[in-house]
DNA sequence: AGGCTTCTGCAACAATTGAATCAAAATAAT
DNA sequence: ATTATTTTGATTCAATTGTTGCAGAAGCCT
């Protein structure tokens, strides 16, 4: 069938076998696909000098059940902001909705894949490299992510512990929060993570970092987030989810990328350090798959 | 006036002076401009959790006479740069080739999307529902994930704290690990998370859970993982990554799905509880986007 | 507290939308 | 030339759209 080729190709292929009126419609679709994407069937028909039903007939003739399905294909090819994958993701999503056998997992899977895509799409390699640089050059690395965002903060702290042995994972335990924040200095780098509703302490930490002139990297959910304002390096994590809770997957992917960038900047030497640390861990403290301790 | 700036910039500038409800709408427009471009006012409003008139009010507030004018600005910014089909095809192709200089981020993005896909692909809805059930029916919920997997464990504990107020997040602090494990009873449910190299304590916990006959749910990376053997409910998280560290994204997605399943099983009542808890959090402890504390 | 303004939710409206129906016209076949 | 078939045009319908007006809620000011 018409399957999933570019809709313009599909039209082109069928063109020869269309009736005169349908050709008029098809030709317009080929020439001005954007109009099809954005305007109503009637408007498009008028612009193409064709009756509205003819436009509908073209859609059906090409194998679509509804004019909206037809138009969606034009929208897909325009909206695809990131090459070919975006279109595929949308297709998957559409198909899943269509075959909707309740499918909670399918929805979650689709949503999280889109989250990752949307999170990474607008980010340049250079941006994450620049952020990585600030942590490498910092005297002390400070990390703040509370509540739901604590897993992200913890992961960064844990994954970079070998390179940044005196990094501070700020948790505000035992009421020491103010003091921990006060210790942030001008030569430090700060990583803050928070989503709406933004935990107050995290916002305070971000502001404190700015006021002393520390390098601030924010992972948050929107440009209007209080963490976004004035951040030196800003990464927006998509977080849609079919469930009650927003998804953390995008944020997790970003910190992992940040860690990867740091490792890559530190180069060979860092990898060796890491391997040594992992080996140690393996021997002493873990149940390893090749062993016989099972 | 709104002039001809990018509509997103316009929104961003006005954002501070908007009413709470309008901010919700504005926020959605900033987050998902594509939806505004392609969907009807009512659909958009529904997705943004806002009444249709609010969406219209936002448009008018920003100086547009009609919602269509507002939406056209979103369409403009993603619309085809005009030109014929051939011209655009060439352009698209050029862009793909150009961005095909696959940077680090693209690789990470692709890998994590695949991780999610592979993680969810073999799992049936019924399987995750069954696992969810064991936690709901348990006398006490025990959660063990150490080192790299601690973020996953913490997230589960945090996200379900409202339903399982006496859940135990086992961390082995202050050398109490053995005691914590010993308290697992037959009527409990246990969630263990570990990847190769499997932390010894986690493996011990899994075995302890099995030996007393508690319901064991494992999130791990392989069927031959020590956590996989004899687990009542097993979920394998894909974890490939172009970087040194294995990715946690798949595991994170799975726990989130597990939480979603629990919420869905608990039904309406759970959601109300959650909302109440979120509201409390919002009022007391957080910097919320609608406030004027900025 | 009271009175004022602003903001929010709801219901209803008229216009427009996609789609179905059916007759007229054109075309092809016999 | 007449029938049969497809293509085209016009009309209509039900659903959805953007929009309006109004009443209650919430916030602000003196």
From TrEMBL, chains A, B:
InterPro entries: Homeodomain-like_sf, HTH_RpiR, RpiR-like, RpiR-like_SIS, SIS_dom, SIS_dom_sf, WH-like_DNA-bd_sf. It comes from the Bacteria. One of its GO terms (molecular function) is DNA-binding transcription factor activity. PROSITE patterns: HTH_RPIR (PS51071). Keywords: DNA-binding, Transcription, Transcription regulation. Gene3D superfamilies: Glucose-6-phosphate isomerase like protein, domain 1 (3.40.50.10490), Winged helix-like DNA-binding domain superfamily/Winged helix DNA-binding domain (1.10.10.10). Residues 5-81 form the HTH rpiR-type domain. The keyword Transcription regulation applies. GO terms for biological process: carbohydrate derivative metabolic process. SUPFAM superfamilies: Homeodomain-like, SIS domain. This is SIS domain-containing protein. It comes from Sneathiella litorea. The lineage of its organism: Bacteria, Pseudomonadati, Pseudomonadota, Alphaproteobacteria, Sneathiellales.
């Amino acid at each position: 069938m018409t399957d999933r080729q570019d809709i313009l190709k599909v039209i082109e292929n069928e063109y020869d076998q269309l009736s005169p009126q349908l050709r008029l419609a098809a030709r317009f679709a080929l020439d001005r696909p954007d109009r099809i994407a954005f305007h109503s069937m009637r408007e498009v028909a008028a612009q193409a000098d064709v009756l509205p039903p003819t436009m509908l007939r073209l859609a059906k003739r090409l194998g679509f059940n509804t004019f909206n399905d037809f138009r969606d294909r034009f929208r897909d090819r325009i909206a695809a902001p990131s090459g070919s994958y975006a279109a595929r993701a949308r297709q998957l999503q559409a198909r899943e909705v269509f075959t909707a056998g309740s499918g909670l997992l399918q929805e979650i899977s689709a949503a999280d894949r889109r989250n990752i895509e949307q999170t990474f799409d607008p980010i340049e390699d250079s941006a994450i490299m620049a952020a990585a640089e600030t942590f490498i050059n910092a005297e002390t690395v400070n990390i703040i992510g509370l509540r739901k965002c604590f897993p992200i903060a913890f992961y960064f702290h844990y994954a970079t512990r070998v390179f940044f042995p005196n990094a501070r994972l700020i948790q505000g335990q035992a009421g020491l929060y103010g003091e921990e924040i006060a210790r942030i200095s001008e030569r430090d780098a700060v990583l803050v993570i928070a989503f709406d509703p933004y935990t107050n302490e995290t916002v305070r930490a971000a502001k404190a970092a700015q006021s002393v002139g520390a390098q601030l990297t924010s992972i948050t959910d929107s440009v209007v987030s209080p963490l976004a304002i004035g951040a030196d390096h800003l990464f927006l994590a998509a977080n849609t989810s079919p469930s009650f809770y927003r998804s953390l997957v995008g944020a997790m992917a970003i910190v992992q990328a940040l860690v990867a960038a740091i490792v890559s900047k530190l180069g060979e030497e860092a990898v060796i350090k890491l391997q040594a640390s992992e080996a140690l861990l393996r021997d002493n403290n873990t149940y390893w798959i090749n062993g016989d301790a099972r």
